[in-house]
Design a protein that fits this description.
The protein has a single domain, classed as Rossmann fold (3-Layer(aba) Sandwich). Helix content is 26%, strand content 25%. The chain has six helices and eleven strands. Strands 1, 2, 3, 4, 5, 6, 7, 8, 9, 10 and 11 form an eleven-stranded mixed sheet that branches. A hairpin with a 2-residue loop joins strand 3 and strand 4. The radius of gyration is 17 Å and the shape is globular. The model has no long low-confidence stretch (mean pLDDT 95). Bound molecules: hypoxanthine. Hypoxanthine binds next to strand 5, strand 10 and strand 11.
């Protein structure tokens, strides 16, 4: 049975609690293997698919993720609607640690990643419209679900995608701020563009793990704090999903 909704879990989210009637799919794609098996199961009476973007033991770095295989695998399983869950650093004042946000724009600073399914084979190149990089209906669905679940959410913001796996310098974040970025993460691209190439309805749920370099009071970003904040932010996902799946 095709999933009603697929989730790609990022740092701090490697499995979905509460799934029933679970099946694991080791999907092969023309682009190679996805990060891990796709897990499908029922939640609140609806079919869900879940894939851990970094692998279930977080062994795949952002620049080494096979984004094409991940999205193709979800599409092969019949997914049409996808939420990418991404840990991010906060740049804008209202994007502090533990905030949840649904960005509406992207600036891509990554390099050397495979960014398209157009790979020089015989298939005609497709120049997708990416003026609005996320699906309006998925974004609205997420924001409405947060309202119903009484989970605070920031509607909108520009996601700056960096190469990682290192965090950024203060100067890099200062430049990103001048560019108009509100959030910074390492995995938002090329995932969003590839999802559009596959005609998937895709939106990002960003979980703020820390102040980006130079944005908070602290001189250094602590990994312990990142994980503690992510755990807190992730704990709200079941409420959002419940509201979303009930709709
Ligand atoms: N920068 C980039 N990616 C991130 C950050 C950050 O500060 N925090 C969590 N993911």
């Amino acid at each position: 049975m095709a999933p009603d909704l697929a989730l790609i879990g990022g740092t701090g989210l490697y499995r979905l609690a509460g799934l029933e009637d679970v099946a694991e799919h080791r999907v092969d794609t023309p682009w190679g293997r996805p990060s891990d098996a796709v897990v499908t199961g029922n939640l609140h009476g609806r079919r869900l698919a879940f894939l851990a973007r970094h692998g279930s033991n977080h062994s795949i770095a952002p620049h080494q993720i096979n984004y094409r295989a991940n999205l193709d695998a979800l599409k092969q399983l019949g997914a049409k609607r996808v939420i990418g869950i991404n840990a991010v650093g906060g740049i804008r004042e209202d994007m502090g640690p533990r905030v949840l946000a649904v960005p509406d724009q992207i600036i891509d600073y990554t390099h050397g990643r495979i960014t398209s399914f157009c790979d020089g084979s015989d298939v005609a190149v497709r120049h997708i419209d990416f003026s609005e990089p996320y699906s309006a209906s998925m974004r609205n669905g997420l924001i409405e679900a947060c309202r119903r679940a009484e989970v605070a959410i920031v509607d909108g913001g520009c996601y700056g995608a960096t190469q990682g796996p290192r965090l950024e310098t203060r100067a890099e974040i200062a430049r990103m701020k001048r560019d108009g970025c509100d959030l910074v993460g390492m995995t938002g691209m090329p995932e969003a563009a590839l999802a559009r190439e596959l005609d998937l309805d895709y939106a990002c749920l960003a979980l703020v793990a820390n102040w980006a370099a130079g944005c908070g009071d602290e001189a250094e970003i602590s990994l312990d704090e990142i994980f503690a904040n992510l755990e807190q932010a992730t704990s709200r996902i079941p409420m959002i999903l419940q509201a979303m799946l009930a709709a």
